[in-house]
Specification:
Elements: H1 6-15, E1 18-28, E2 32-41, E3 45-47, E4 50-54, H2 66-85, E5 92-95, H3 102-115, H4 117-122, E6 134-137, E7 151-157, H5 162-174, E8 179-183, H6 187-195, E9 203-209, H7 212-219, H8 229-244, E10 246-251, H9 275-288, E11 294-297, H10 304-311, H11 338-347, H12 353-360, H13 371-377, H14 392-406, H15 415-420, H16 424-429, H17 434-438, H18 449-458
Parallel strand pairs: 1-5, 5-6, 7-8, 7-10, 8-9, 10-11
Antiparallel strand pairs: 1-2, 2-3, 2-4, 4-9
Helix pairs in contact: 2-8, 5-10, 11-14
Length: 459
């Protein structure tokens, strides 16, 4: 639901014109690496968010010089500040730890603006990329590009959903000594990693803490909304790769993440999972951090449908995976949100309805209260749900395949499928060639030949 907060936006910008990234501190304690950032808004509100990285047998921080560590930690802070800046959307952001070149400032403004596209849209804030923020550096020291000695092995960021499961399962079949990285672990992410063969020494856990002062501002009615979490994960993964000396960081973002959430616009809930962000991030890291890292999405050539097909063979993961943000804290499917509905739909052509009911606890396609989300997902409305969901075409194709494979009679059709058969969407998509569809391979990706061949092997 959109809320007109544009006047509040103007008032807050005028009342709190400055945001400052003051400093950061890195402390190597006995059992963890503790990173603390120091931000303030117009010297009225102060924030000290932290990131904790427990020490395990896989993590040896002493291999990094202070100079290298500070550069990597600083860049994480450049993403972290977004969550705090958006409370007031201050006109000017002052960066004190390092001096940034104009090209770097342009990179960061693009991430902030596009990564906050949903935030601006939901709050009805009308602002353009040139004027929404000014970045000023109050420092003389530049962050310098470094050289790292890395081995040609893989780190796999894991969230507990079907996509990262597919990446883990396929890479573990072909490559040895993989590590997985989990930012703010939850039961599903830990369980799916262990089901894929990882143990406590090969699972790297990162704990990010939001400063309670920000939560207090949110409760008082300051501006709030979605931020580009995957951009934070990207820079955290570079730090971890440097520490564990791994070259490859294999994400699980698919081609479907490129589609806009709001039809006819550039507003994309998944901007920091898009090919555009991945390309920009790789270029930035290469020019300003190091040429040695290889950050890419292993699943970028595939659609959500193709990933769902691959996931359907990972039966040992059916009980553990979770893609529901609403139910993540209690490790359950809420079965009332658009993410639950989408994953149920996209898996339906490849997993029987009885098995899906065992996974979710009910047949979500029988829930008439999901009609609004259903219409959003199939493109009957101009705005998709602000969730990590597939394209409109993929949802329609999945529904047609489900009808074709699992329902020979109209008598036992679930409520939403019965409704779907009355729509023009059904007539448009029901003749899709499934075999051809599942063999498609999007060439817009950054996989090297070995990773590309691995992916094609299992398609």
């Amino acid at each position: 639901m959109r809320t007109s907060n544009h006047n509040k936006f103007i008032d807050l910008r005028n009342s709190y014109p400055l945001f400052s990234f003051d400093d950061f501190k890195v402390q190597l304690k006995e059992n963890e690496l503790l990173i603390t950032y120091f931000f303030n808004i117009s010297e009225r509100f102060y924030f000290k968010p932290t990131i904790r990285i427990p020490i395990t047998n896989s993590l040896k921080y002493e291999i990094l010089s202070k100079k290298k560590l500070n550069n990597l930690v600083f860049h994480i802070g450049m993403v972290e500040l977004i969550s705090y800046w958006k409370a007031t959307c201050s006109k000017k952001v002052i960066i004190k730890p390092f001096l940034l070149e104009e090209k770097q400032i342009s990179f960061w403004k693009k991430i902030y603006y596009n990564g906050l596209g949903e935030f601006f849209y939901i709050n009805s804030i009308d602002i353009n990329e040139d004027s929404f923020m000014e970045i000023e550096c109050n420092a003389t020291i530049k962050s310098e590009k470094e050289k790292y000695e890395l081995i040609d092995s893989n780190i796999i960021p894991v969230g507990g959903g079907k996509d990262s499961i597919v990446t883990m399962e396929l890479l573990n079949r072909e490559y040895k000594d993989n590590l997985c990285l989990i930012l703010n672990p939850r039961k599903a992410s830990i369980d799916t990693a262990k089901n894929a063969g990882f143990n406590d020494d090969s699972i790297i856990k990162i704990y990010r803490t939001i400063d309670p002062n920000l939560i207090d501002l949110n409760n008082k009615g300051f501006l709030n909304g979605h931020t580009p979490f995957s951009a934070l994960l990207a820079f955290v993964s570079i730090l971890i790769a440097a520490i564990v000396k791994r070259k490859n960081i294999a994400l699980s973002n698919e081609s479907s993440a490129n589609e806009a959430t709001v039809d006819g616009s550039n507003i994309n809930h998944q901007y920091s999972k898009s090919y555009e962000f991945e390309r920009d991030f790789r270029l930035y890291v290469k020019e300003f951090v190091s040429e040695d890292f290889n950050y890419f999405s292993f699943l970028r050539p595939l659609s959500e449908l193709q990933i769902a097909k691959l996931f359907s063979d990972c039966k040992k993961q059916f009980k553990s995976f979770r893609s529901c943000n609403v139910g993540s804290k209690v490790d359950e499917w809420c079965c009332k949100c658009p993410k639950c509905l989408f994953t149920f739909i996209i898996l339906s052509p490849f997993i029987s309805s009885n098995e899906l009911i065992r996974i979710y606890g009910e047949n979500i396609l029988n829930d008439s209260e999901m009609m609004h989300y259903f219409n959003q997902l199939i493109g009957n409305e101009n705005v998709k749900p602000f969730e990590c969901v597939g394209t409109v075409d993929e949802v329609n194709i999945a529904l047609c395949l489900t009808l074709k494979k699992h329902y020979s009679s109209n008598e036992d059709l679930p409520y939403l499928l019965n409704y779907y058969k009355t729509l023009k969407n059904y007539e448009r998509f029901k003749g899709i060639d499934e075999v051809k569809l599942l063999k498609q391979f999007n060439e817009e990706h950054f996989l090297n030949v070995d990773f590309e061949n691995t992916l094609k092997k299992y398609m």
